[in-house]
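Working notes for the structural subgroup meeting. M.R. asked for a predicted model of this chain before we commit to crystallization trials. I am recording the input and output together here so anyone reviewing the notebook later can reproduce the run.

Input as submitted:
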Amino acid sequence: MNYYIIIPAHNEEAFLADTLNSVQLQTLPPKKVIVVNDNSTDGTESIIDDFIRGNPLFEKLNSTSSTDHLPGRKVINAFNKALETLDGTYDFLVKLDADIILPHNYFEKISEIFRAHPEVGIAGGFAYEKDVNGEWELNHPMNKDHVRGAFKAYTKACFIAINGLRNAMGWDTVDELLAQYHGFKIFTEEALRVKHLRPTGKAYNKKARLLQGEAMYTMGYGILLSSMASLKMALKQRNLSVFFHNLKGFFNARKNKTPYLISEKEAKFIRTLRWKNVGNKLLNK
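Returned structure, recorded in token form:
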């Protein structure tokens, strides 16, 4: 199968070379890799240039945006700029972070998943991060059916159906919900162990958590689902302020009448799916 990779990169000189090395060593190489140098002020661009000189697979796209290292709009803006330069001759499309190391057979296995399961629209492995003892430990969301935004692969049909990625915090949740709305399934492969070099949340701050609450509002969660999701996040991160910052972001968005990211019909489907998942988890306990 043919595929493209897009890698947004903002001040990633500490990790980028490892990521690009793992990409160029793939047993199933991509057609093209576009690395978006997103307003970096460190050595990110020179690392990209080094790889371009050594391998025509890589291309660079310079982008000017904010200097904040925040999830959501900044990342998807960079992704979409690269997407505009690609044609439609691919079987699947990959959004990849600049701080991970992939197993050498990662995309060969992703290709096999898509071929064997035509109903699957989004696929990926599991993230591992170093603990305090330097050991690689699983650090995945409680929902094992979720593919982390750091290494998402979309079939062409699914990506078109969901109309691309939403330009907001929470994009890597709404994409999966919309995929299911359009009849696609999510596939996670535990054997694909991805090394995440920057532990989740280390570069994020209060502003990011406010954006998370805003995302819950714009995805049509409603206050009860948003509260439950925020509490789960706070417990996972062992930080109660996450709960309050999320809800503040939710109420700010409601007060400002921030537009939904999705249609009301899609929002209704998402709420129903979320409550169904809550019910299933309670029944399985």
